[in-house]
Backbone:
């Protein structure tokens, strides 16, 4: 009896990339937040070269996904917005980096998915 089923292979590493995390700006936000532990909106806007409106939209996506926590307050008389990575955000970022490493490894090996 022959098996006409194709051989089961590990899925390509690109299939495991998270669309919410992988978007360039959001990946940048999560990475900066991971490094800084608590990051101010204005710093992020400048560091990533974004408009305030564009950054706000990306922060909304990340906050709705539970990957960041947003805190509003004052520093002196100036209103400020800070964000921190949630535990879910930390896990999502670590998983994204792991998948990117798998993708790079596969690319450098010239073919078969890394296991």
Residues:
């Amino acid at each position: 009896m022959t098996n006409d089923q194709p051989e089961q292979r590990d899925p390509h590493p690109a299939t495991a990339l998270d669309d919410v995390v992988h978007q360039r700006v959001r990946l940048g936000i999560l990475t900066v937040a991971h490094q800084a532990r608590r990051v101010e909106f204005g710093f992020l806007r400048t560091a990533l070269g974004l408009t305030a409106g564009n950054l706000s939209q990306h922060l909304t996506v990340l906050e709705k996904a539970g990957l960041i926590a947003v805190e509003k307050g004052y520093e002196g008389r100036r209103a400020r917005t800070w964000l921190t990575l949630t535990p879910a955000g930390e896990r999502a970022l670590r998983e994204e980096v792991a998948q990117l490493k798998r993708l790079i490894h596969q690319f450098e090996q010239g073919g078969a998915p890394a296991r």
